[in-house]
Design goal:
Layout: H1 6-9, H2 12-21, E1 34-38, E2 41-44, E3 49-52, H3 55-58, H4 67-77, H5 90-100, E4 108-112, H6 115-130, E5 134-138, H7 147-151, E6 168-171, H8 190-204, E7 209-214, E8 217-218, E9 224-225, H9 230-241, E10 244-248, E11 272-275, E12 286-290, H10 292-300, H11 313-328, H12 331-352, E13 356-362, E14 365-370, H13 381-393, E15 396-397, E16 409-412, H14 420-438
Parallel strand pairs: 3-15, 5-6, 5-7, 7-10, 10-11
Antiparallel strand pairs: 1-2, 2-3, 4-12, 8-9, 11-12, 13-14, 14-16
Helix pairs in contact: 4-11, 5-11, 8-9, 12-14, 13-14
The structure holds pyridoxal-5'-phosphate (PLP).
Length: 439
C-alpha cells in the first residue's frame, strides 16, 4: 500500500498472522501496526504519531495512558482485582456513591463492563418494573451487539441474524439536515414528526410499551442531535403511555458535550441512565443509574442481573480516577472551549470546501458530513473514504463508520485533554486531506 510506512509494510509476519487467525468483525483494518499510545496520539511500529480524533472507540476522554489511570490500575491490580459477584468493595461503593450523588432521581447504581451490557440491564429493569416488553428506539440508534441492545439498534445491518426481540419498534430520529417534516420556513418540524411517529407506534403496540431508549446525540447514526425541547416532548410521550425513558450516554456522558450528561442541557431526567465508553475512559466499565423507587420495585420483583464482572473493584477504581481527573482538571469546561475552537475550524472547512455539507454536534462530539454537492445533500461515501485515507497518511485518525445507513459522516471526538495546538494540527491535516482527496 503506497501510503504505508516502510516499517509497517515490512511487518509481514504480523499481517499473515492477521490473515490466518484474526476473525474479521466488521471494520477494514488500518494497515498499520499500533505499538503504543500516549495523550492524544497513537504510534505505529515505525514510531509515526497518529493524532487520535476519535478517542479510540470514542472512549479515551483523558487521552491514552493518562498518568492517573496508569497509577490507579497499577496500584489497584496489586491490591484487589476481581471478586465473587456477591462481595462488595470500597471502589465499587465509592463510585456508586459518586455517580449516584450527581442528580436527584438517579441515586442507585449498578456497575458493569460494556455499553451493550448496561443497556441489557436497563431494558431488563424496565421490563420487570413495568411488567411490559415493548421497546422503542430511533431508526439510527446504536445500543450494542447483544440481544436486547441489538434489538433496539437500527443503524447496523439487522439482516442474517434471525429474529430480534418481539415488540421492537423504531421511530425516525429528528434530522435537521435532512428533515422529513418541515415548517413554513423549510426547517425541521420535529413536533409533527414525533406525533406522527408515536401514532405509528401506538397502532403497532399490543399495549405493552415498556420503554423508549435513546442517545441524546445519535453518534453512530451520524451525529444527529436531538433539538432543544425534543427530550422533554419525548419524556411526555413516555409518561402518557406509562413507558420508562432510558437514556444511553455511552458517548455523550462524563462531560464530552459540555455538561456532565448531555440531557442536562434539556432539563429532563431519564428514569434510567446508562454510561459506558467515557466512564472508563477506554477501560471496560459501564453503569446503570436509576431512581430509588424503580430500584425498590425491581428488587421487590426479584431483579437479577448477575455477570462475571459486575461490581469488579479494578474498573471501579478506574472510574473513580476518571471522575477525579474530569473534576480536578475542569474538563467539562474544557469540552466547551476546545469544542468551540474545533467547531469554528470545521465551519471554516465548510466555507472552503463544497464537499463539506454540514457541521454539527456539541462540545467535543462533532460531525462533519461529506456530500456530493450542497444542493442535493447526497452523502459522498467514496469522497469521505478518500479523505479518511489521506488524513491517515498525514497522521490523523478520524474514521467514518463504514456500515450501511451511517452515511458519510466523520465523527470527531478527540480526548477532552486535547491541546489547542493539537486541535489546530488536526484541522490543518483535514484541510490538506480534503484538498488531496479532491485532486
Ligand atoms: C451509544 C452507544 N451505546 C452503546 C454502545 C455499545 O457499547 P459496547 O460496544 O461497549 O457494548 C455503543 C457503542 O458504540 C454506543 O455508541
Amino acid at each position: 500500500m503506497a501510503l504505508e510506512s516502510a516499517s509497517n509494510s515490512t511487518d509481514t509476519g504480523f499481517w499473515s498472522d492477521v490473515s490466518d487467525h484474526v476473525l474479521r468483525y466488521g471494520p477494514v483494518f488500518e494497515q498499520r501496526v499500533i505499538e503504543r499510545a500516549e495523550g492524544s496520539y497513537v504510534y505505529d511500529s515505525s514510531g509515526a504519531p497518529i493524532l487520535d480524533f476519535t478517542s479510540g472507540q470514542m472512549s479515551s476522554i483523558l487521552g491514552h495512558s493518562h498518568p492517573d489511570i496508569v497509577r490507579t490500575v497499577r496500584e489497584q491490580i496489586g491490591k484487589l482485582d476481581h471478586l465473587f459477584s456477591g462481595m462488595l468493595s470500597r471502589p465499587v461503593v465509592d463510585l456508586s456513591k459518586r455517580l449516584g450523588s450527581l442528580l436527584p432521581g438517579l441515586e442507585k447504581v449498578l456497575l458493569l463492563s460494556t455499553g451493550a451490557e448496561s443497556n441489557e440491564a436497563a431494558i431488563r429493569l424496565a421490563k420487570l418494573v413495568t411488567g411490559k416488553h415493548e421497546i422503542v428506539a430511533f431508526t439510527k440508534s446504536w445500543h450494542g451487539m447483544t440481544g436486547a441492545a441489538a434489538s433496539a439498534t437500527y443503524s447496523h445491518n439487522r439482516r442474517g441474524y434471525g429474529p430480534v426481540n418481539p415488540g421492537s419498534f423504531a421511530i425516525p430520529a429528528p434530522n435537521a439536515y435532512r428533515p422529513r417534516f418541515t415548517d413554513a420556513n423549510g426547517n425541521l418540524d420535529w413536533k409533527t414528526e414525533l406525533d406522527d411517529a408515536f401514532a405509528l407506534v401506538d397502532s403497532q403496540s399490543t399495549g405493552n410499551l415498556a420503554a423508549f431508549i435513546a442517545e441524546p446525540i445519535l453518534s453512530s447514526g451520524g451525529i444527529i442531535e436531538l433539538p432543544v425541547g425534543y427530550l422533554a416532548a419525548l419524556r411526555q410521550k413516555c409518561d402518557e403511555r406509562g413507558m420508562l425513558l432510558i437514556l444511553d450516554e455511552a458517548q455523550t456522558g462524563i462531560g464530552r458535550t459540555g455538561h456532565m450528561f448531555a440531557f442536562q442541557r434539556d432539563g429532563v431526567t431519564p428514569d434510567i441512565l446508562t454510561l459506558s465508553k467515557t466512564l472508563g475512559a477506554g477501560l471496560p466499565l459501564s453503569a446503570v443509574l436509576t431512581s430509588r423507587a424503580i430500584e425498590e420495585e425491581a428488587h421487590r420483583k426479584g431483579f437479577v442481573f448477575l455477570t462475571t464482572h459486575v461490581s469488579d473493584p479494578l474498573p471501579a477504581a478506574v472510574g473513580l480516577a476518571v471522575m477525579d481527573v474530569v473534576e480536578r482538571d475542569g474538563l467539562i469546561g474544557r469540552a466547551v472551549s476546545a469544542g468551540q475552537r474545533l467547531q469554528a475550524g470545521l465551519e471554516g472547512l465548510k466555507q472552503r470546501f463544497e464537499s463539506v455539507g454540514d457541521v454539527r454536534g456539541r462540545g467535543l462530539l462533532l460531525g462533519l458530513e461529506i456530500v456530493t454537492d450542497r444542493a442535493s445533500r447526497q452523502p459522498d461515501l467514496a469522497m469521505a473514504d478518500r479523505i479518511g485515507a489521506e488524513a491517515m497518511a498525514r497522521g490523523l485518525s478520524m474514521n467514518i463508520v463504514k456500515l450501511p445507513a451511517m452515511g458519510a459522516v466523520f465523527r470527531i471526538a478527540p480526548p477532552l485533554t486535547i491541546s489547542d495546538a493539537e486541535i489546530d494540527q488536526g484541522l490543518d491535516i483535514m484541510a490538506s486531506a480534503i484538498e488531496a482527496a479532491r485532486a
